Amino acid sequence: LEHQLRSSGAQALFTCEPLLETALKAAKGAGIPNERIFILATPGSTARLPFATLDELVEEGKKLPAVEPLRWTKGQGARQVAYLVPHHV
């Protein structure tokens, strides 16, 4: 994970409580500070962690002004693609 964070140039990390220990080690090694680590809700978890949650981040974002929509040129989407891995590695 540390290698992936470094090679991608990640500036933040989203994780869940069960993977937090691994995520913290990788984030530290990749130079991602704790204030840029965010916790995703885990069903049944009641632990209070010293990290902002995704829900808190969304609530903060609602207070910000709207951003201009992206205006892509023809073919730009083929060069700018994000991928979500839908399974646990």
Could you please describe the fold and organization of this structure?
The protein is of the alpha/beta class and 89 residues long. The chain has one domain (2-65). Helix content is 35%, strand content 11%. The protein has 4 helices and 3 strands. The protein has helices at 2-8, 20-30, 54-62, 76-79, and strands at 13-16, 37-40, 52-53. The protein has a 3-stranded parallel sheet with strand order 1-2-3. Helix 2 links the parallel strand 1 and strand 2 (37-40). The longest helix has 11 residues, at 20-30. The protein is globular. The mean pLDDT is 86.
Task: Say how many strands there are.
Answer: 3
Distance between the termini: 10 Å
Low-confidence stretches: none
| H/E topology pattern | HEHEEHH
Net shape: globular
Q: How many independent structural domains?
A: 1
The residue fraction in helices comes out at 25-40%
Number of H/I helices = 4
- Biggest beta-sheet profile: 3 strands, parallel
Structural class: alpha/beta
Q: Radius of gyration from the CA trace?
A: 16 Å
User: Mean pLDDT across all residues, rounded?
Assistant: 86
Strand portion, in percent? 5-15%
What is the spatial order of strands in the main beta sheet? 1-2-3
